[in-house]
Amino acid sequence: MGTSFVINVPATSANIGPGFDVMGLSLSLYLTVSADVETEQGSDMAAVTTILPNRNITLMYEGENSGGLSLDPQANLITRTALYVLDCSGIKQFPHPTTVRVKNSIPLGRGLGSSGAAVVAGVLLANAVGSLRLTQQRMLDYCLMIEHHPDNVAAALVGGFVASYLIDVDRSGNIPASEADEAEVLQREREQKAAAADGSIKLPPDNIGHFLQLECSPKIKAIAIIPQFELATSKARAALPGSYTTRDVVFNLQRLAVLTTALGRETPDPWLIYRAMEDKVHQPYRMHLVPGLPEILATFNPDNTPGLLGICLSGAGPTILALAVSNFDEIASKIRAVFDRQPNGGIATEYKVLDIVGEGASCIESLR
Ligand SMILES: Nc1ncnc2c1ncn2[C@@H]1O[C@H](COP(=O)(O)OP(=O)(O)O)[C@@H](O)[C@H]1O
Ligand SMILES: N[C@@H](CCOP(=O)(O)O)C(=O)O
């Protein structure tokens, strides 16, 4: 006898051109985390005195990069996030023996929000197994404590076409202004906790991320052209400059303001969207990390590629995101051909035609 939870979290495409660290789209490609909790056999949460080495978790994984991820619950991003959230509520391990099965269809390190989805899944997992009753807003706080840019996690948590910002918490207020990746952030939390005189962990400040779900025409699909190489988000962030010209910032602000409503029009205007998806803040500095990207951005447009609305780097890359209303396979073929033509035998790609899904992360509970 026990309880089962099935958590589904969508992939996301962040930035959508000019909305660096602001915009995200949730996509019909999922990370699924199933947790079977043995409530009958396990000891009562209050009675747990010994911290088990595996924190009461058996972890299994299948799907993308199945050989490459740690199954150590204290190293794996999903369970490590869950343990951090439980710890913030004074719970040192999973309250009951729990088998966690991960099925992941989101390619890792490709700019489709795999790490954001893992963080969101970890927060939902802790909420479920620890009966924490966290609100969606509080879950977002936890996600942002670990992934410092809100675009992926907000879209993965709430679904749809999402704009978000992070409150500028002061330096003593827990959200460090750093480019550390999720694993480094969790490690730092662990070290700060170990160093704290009372062994306490810092809680995320309240209400640190705000979001708005925007209209997106149901006619629009997302074509993801996914190169077969990984690009760590931290590496792609390290390529960005520390400051920008006023001209480039204004260029992006103008486009971003138009993009927020252009995608919601019932009949999307291809050239309006195409121009509104141009960017001068992150893509120009990431060109060298994605061979083929300069040609792809310079070549395809709504006139020479019917059905295309706009094209950009998905998240930090290397995936290319093309928004379109028709001719999805043809558009994908043209973009893939650019990767095929790259020096030294080309770059292998796969592609997926995805829906923009209105529903974000979910957790379904059942009794066994
Ligand atoms: N399902 C998962 N389970 C555990 N760790 C994951 C999972 N998905 C992603 N990660 C972690 O996140 C890293 C990729 O993050 P990142 O470089 O930000 O790329 P992405 O653009 O896919 O989010 C992986 O190398 C892995 O450490
Ligand atoms: N705004 C971030 C988005 C990273 O997305 P990911 O899917 O590549 O993790 C950035 O551009 O760095």
Automatic annotation (TrEMBL):
HAMAP family: Homoser_kinase. It comes from Coemansia thaxteri. Keywords: Amino-acid biosynthesis, ATP-binding, Kinase, Nucleotide-binding, Threonine biosynthesis, Transferase. It comes from the Eukaryota. InterPro entries: GHMP_kinase_C_sf, GHMP_kinase_N_dom, GHMP_knse_ATP-bd_CS, Homoserine_kinase, Ribosomal_Su5_D2-typ_SF, Ribsml_uS5_D2-typ_fold_subgr. Gene3D superfamilies: 3.30.230.10, GHMP kinase, C-terminal domain (3.30.70.890). GO terms for molecular function: ATP binding; homoserine kinase activity. Its EC number is 2.7.1.39. SUPFAM superfamilies: GHMP Kinase, C-terminal domain, Ribosomal protein S5 domain 2-like. It holds the Pfam family GHMP_kinases_N. Residues 76-160 form the GHMP kinase N-terminal domain. This is Homoserine kinase. Belongs to the GHMP kinase family. Homoserine kinase subfamily. Pathway: Amino-acid biosynthesis; L-threonine biosynthesis; L-threonine from L-aspartate: step 4/5. The keyword Membrane does not apply. It catalyses: L-homoserine + ATP = O-phospho-L-homoserine + ADP + H(+).
